[in-house]
Amino acid sequence: MGLENSKSPDEILEIFRSQWPNSTVYNLPNGNFMALPHEESPTHPGLLRDRAPCPPDQVVKHLEGKFAFIIYDANTSTLFAARDREGSVEFQWGMASDGSLVCSDDTNITRDGCGKFCAPFPPGCIFINGSGLTSFDHPLHKVRAIAHKDDHENISTVFVQVDLYTRIPSIPCSGSASNWADAVVVEGD
Fold this sequence. Notes:
Number of domains: 1
Order of helices and strands: HEEHEEEEHEEEEEH
Number of helices: 4
Number of strands: 11
Shape: globular
CATH architecture: 4-Layer Sandwich
Largest sheet: 4 strands, antiparallel
């Protein structure tokens, strides 16, 4: 996979612990973990589910102010991450040598742990494992990564941009009169 500059998750955890000796580590399913710089409880059961039936992008879209956060729902093994529109709060993500996702508000940890396989988490976006990266202002349009290369053809930066010309297929509402007006009926012999 070409992740030779990345470290293993255990090595990244050691980098984190060297900078934050009083950190707290929470073990998650499948060998994953969450490390916090000091002792605090990250548990708020059902936080994602409490807003149902609103889609997550609609919930985050209405948040105001500076924010970057990660929510892990242990019941569904769902990881949810978001960052405000302006990117006001430092938030990096990258990839460990085994392909694991690494997220931190400390650029030194992600840079030391992930090598060149890290970047700022895109402002105005949410990430849900299984669904991928989405703009919370334009959830029905694809988000594309655009790589910029230096003079030696190495990727130097990656920008994320909403492609307003590419729409993600969505399921129409059932029973909507407007959906039926555009329907085409094909009858067989």
